[in-house]
Every structure is written in structure tokens, then in C-alpha cells.
């Protein structure tokens, strides 16, 4: 009779260690090889598609559609995901990564602290403001303001990244923001006229941006009130949909609500002389009261409204584009000249009589007058201006 002997030891215990390793590693290596072949084929296909895309649209073409970024994530989506739409900017490492991959394409302007370029980042247009190393404080301040919690808004220029570029000889400081091909409001008005609907839409968007800037949002993730201090048509960008975004926040100050102070030592007279409020020009502004800075912004807003309204085409009649006080002071006026015109003579830009016969122009002229009162406390708030324009626009739409 045959007898079977049962062994308590598993049969593979009698195998050598080399044989056991082969049993374990063999199938694993086979699976890895299949994955690598699949990945290689897919990557190769994507590369050929990307090459075909570049042949159709040059990398520095404005018309080139946005490439999928980070496997389908565009700059806009990346910012929305990272900041939840209202946060304080992209993580520092992401900002530095973006900045180091930007290709400068063309110079599009000269600012107070440096040059502005159109750049490309993986198929998307961006604006790159380049500061010299001597302007490090200005660069740092503007980047700091842009990254204020809950500042992000459709009528505030969209901040993307800040980084420094050092080639061993000199250091460049980069501030990267959204790119708007229509350029500044100054450039846009010089080249274009608009109808009453477009004028109201544009003015409302600027007032909305300023109201958001001026607003205190309470809470642990709250936003401090911010005063711009250099609001002018050259510091406002025109978007493709005809609305505007306020930019150039390098001179802005934030309100510390707990101590009722502003967050940096103040230079009483700062900004662009042509747009300075009377109390700034004659140095009578109460620099210890934050509302003073908001009222000075509103004065400048009134001048900007005048610039916009002069370019409104009603019945084929409109004015040539000019800066405020173009007929009263030289192109680069001195403080003393502006003080004489604005504070002593109390001049304001001319409002043509024909504006009173058009309801939209009449509303705009009434608003600008209430923005540039000599008495700062009598001026409207940005929020009140926003509500007035919003209500007028709504009533006009109901008539259509």
C-alpha cells in the first residue's frame, strides 16, 4: 500500500533564495514593462500633437489658443483651485516655477518703476512688469498688496506671480499679471470712441473695482480696506469684454482696522500730480484718517469719468481725447501749477452743455461733479457711485 507523507513545510521552502526572487520579481517586471510601453506611446502621441499645434500657431502669437497647462489646467483654473477664487495668490514655489518658464515677446509700455512686456507661458499671454534692482521696495510692496487675502476680483488686475531673475550681472524683479491686449484705458480712449451703453458699462466696472478695493471685509479670512493713491487712466486696463481692471497697486495702503492706522509710513503727497486731490496738493489732508485716502481716490475717479465721457459718441458728436486739465497746465505740470489751478482757482475739467441733453451723459456729469468736490467729506463713496451706475444701467435695460 502506498503511503503519503504530509509535510508541514510549504513546497517552495525547499527552493533557493535566487529561485524565490525570480518568482516574485518576474511578474512585477513584466507589468512595469507594459506600463512603460503604454506611457511612452501616449507621450509620443501628445508630443506629435503639440508639434502640429505649434506649426499652426506660433508660440508668441496673440491669436494662439491657450495650451492645456499642467495636464489640462490653465493659469485661470490653477489660480481658482489654489486660491478658491478669493485667496492671496499662488504658492511661492508655483510662482517661481511660472516665472522661470516665461518667454518675453515684446515691450508694451514703460511704467513708473520699469518696463512692461507681453510674455508667453505655455501658450498663454501674460503681462510682465520688470523692476530694476534699485526698485526692490516698490516691487515687493506691489506684490504684497496684490496677495492681500480676498483681493482677487474681476475688476482688479489679476496677479499671477512675483519672482527675481539673476543672471550674475544684474537682478531683475518680475511681477506677472493677466495680459489685456487693449492695453490701458489711456491708450484705449486715445484710439476709440463708444456709445452710451459701453460708456456706462466701463464706468461701472471701474467703480465696482474701486468699491471692492475700498471695502473692509470682516472675519478671520477678511480683507482690509485698501486705498490706491495713484488712480489714473494709465493704471487701468481695458478687458476684451469692454470692462476694466484696476492695476498698479505699488503705492496702495491698507487699513489696519484694529489700530485704525495705515500699514506703511506715509508720504503725504504721492501719486500723479495731474490727478491729485486738492487736499493732497495743498497738504491739508488728514493722513491719520484712512477715509482721507479713499476720498482722494474718488476725486481721481471723477477725472477718469470725465476722460471716458468725452469719448462717448452721441449722434456723431464726441470730443478728441485729452487728459484732465490739458488746457490749464503743461503736459508735465509742477505741483505749484496744479495747486494754483485746482486749489486756488478751483478749476475742474469743462463739462459741455450738450451733455445735459443726453440722459447717460447727464448722469455721468452729475457723478463726476460729486467726485471732485473741493470739500473731501462731501464726495460720494465708491460704493454709492457703483450703485448709482448699476441702477441707471438696469433702468436703461428695462426700456429696451
TrEMBL record:
Residues 102-392 form the Protein kinase domain. SMART domains: GS, S_TKc. The keyword Signal applies. GO terms for cellular component: membrane. ATP binds at residue 129. InterPro entries: GS_dom, Kinase-like_dom_sf, Prot_kinase_dom, Protein_kinase_ATP_BS, Ser-Thr/Tyr_kinase_cat_dom, Ser/Thr_kinase_AS, TGFB_receptor. It is found in: Membrane. Its EC number is 2.7.11.30. It is an enzyme of class 2 (transferase). One of its GO terms (molecular function) is ATP binding. Residues 73-101 form the GS domain. It is a single-pass type I membrane protein. Keywords: ATP-binding, Kinase, Membrane, Nucleotide-binding, Receptor, Serine/threonine-protein kinase, Signal, Transferase, Transmembrane, Transmembrane helix. The chain crosses the membrane at residues 20-41. Its main location: membrane. Belongs to the protein kinase superfamily. TKL Ser/Thr protein kinase family. TGFB receptor subfamily. This is receptor protein serine/threonine kinase.
